[in-house]
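Sample A.
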Amino acid sequence: MANLPRSKGFVQRLTGQTPPWPRSIARERDDKTSTKYAFDLEEIERFQTKMGVKIDLDREQVAALEDGSRTTLQIGQIGEIVRSLCTTPKSLFRFVESGAAELQPISLSLFVLNEDTWRLMQKKKDHKTNMLPMLTVPWFRWEPAAKTKMNPLGIRRDTHGTFGVSMLEDKSRIVFTGNGGDFAGLIEGRVVRRLIGLRPMFLPGTIGEREKVPHYESQLLRITIDSSESDCALYPIPDKKFDFRFSESPKVFHEHGLRIDCVNDSVHLQVGTRAETALRGETKILIGRSPIPAENSASTLAFHVWLSAVEQAMALTGGGPKPVSS
């Protein structure tokens, strides 16, 4: 999709130049799209105090907050917060980098759609037409001891995943790094047991766990994206082609996340000490963060501001934002 022009105020503040185009009607419509999550008065006030900014609320939003209700924010309002905090391209890029470090834990799921990965999915016991993620942050894995009535697949989520961002603006690159899970294939459960250091389990009348399960290895991950060949969408609608069982919830990505869409050779991946390789086909990268009830509620709004900053940084380095999913 063709790049949508940024607003005059945004470009002028970041580059010192007045763009030669009028503000896009499509972009205006996107700016008025609301977040999927509603904020309360305490969240907004804490954020304003911490960051030293003022959110320009409309009458309906003010009335809802005064009545003790929650209110959504328009994407344009959140974008204006970013533009007030980041007055130069360099400050925007550094804001993206520092925000990732401060707003942990952040989740990532990377899906690769090509003939080889779809062929792999045919080995699954079920959901053969749904694509598993090839990479996840944090690490999701199959573990027999995790099986319960509520978790029949025995999926264990790591609680110590890390996520970082580097902006290589001179090369139009954005780099995501972290500790996470690397998809290593669909393997018989008894084999996975040996790989993760568990004793094989034999039940009377059986010869072990022959059912194939997704196997993810804990690895250091580095994902380099050519932002000039990518599109970014805030609050994406969950894709029915994806299998999110070994991943962060699609609801989290929809309410508190973004999606980056890439095509052939625009994403390079390095896993552990292996050589970097280009990903073939379509690559979809989802990034999000689930609100943590026990933490300062202002951090949820801070994360939405960070998401907007990522979208704007990618646009500034050549990536074209898609219309926001409704």
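Sample B.
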Amino acid sequence: ERESPFDAFISRNGKWIEEMDSGAVIGTSSLRRIAQVRRLRDDVSIKDIRGNLDTRLRKLESGDYDGIIVGEAGLIRLGLHEKISYERLNPELFVPSANQGIIAVATRKGEEELVSFMNHRKTMFEAMVEREILKELGVGCSIPAGIYSKLDENSFEIKCELLSPDGKKEARFDRKFEVGLEKSEGYGECSERDLKAIGKEVERISEDIKARVSPLLEELRIFDRGLKD
């Protein structure tokens, strides 16, 4: 099952991101997170950070950074969420990256059945929806984008946002609609029929998303091509 898709902010002094002093050094290497931080706090300094989670925490403790942003899923999976004080960043302001918090298993072609018993159908559906929206928009790693979907018994929710690198421009799409899931034990508590019905609605929504974000997306692509030239 999907672990937390949300971002976590960890500071050396225990402050939340909106409480940080002007000029504070925030560590992240994600273009999406950089743009989202700049939108919220254009008075802080953002510094690139690399390495696994333990390495990043050591860099924070050593004073290289005043705060860092990481995926909450990593903290939970390493059992650090109960040992470290952190802020779960508001997903309304920090829409997560597509598929954040999801673990995927890759196999050779024709051997999918060997690992099918591990599949969590609801999580797989969320992953496919988010990947399909990325594909529909043609968004790559050079454009700050957040895409998040959530399926539960009564509703399906999609959040999508694109930002300019400085966080000053944004295009946002939010949609939530009611569903009624049939229980199907062992498959993430939703049946194949449920997912097909919801999938048809998602196809229609994808067109709405594209129409909403296309103007900014084209502007960002022109900007990106200019940098490469």
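B remarks: The CA atoms of residues 11 and 67 lie 4 Å apart. The longest strand covers residues 155-163.
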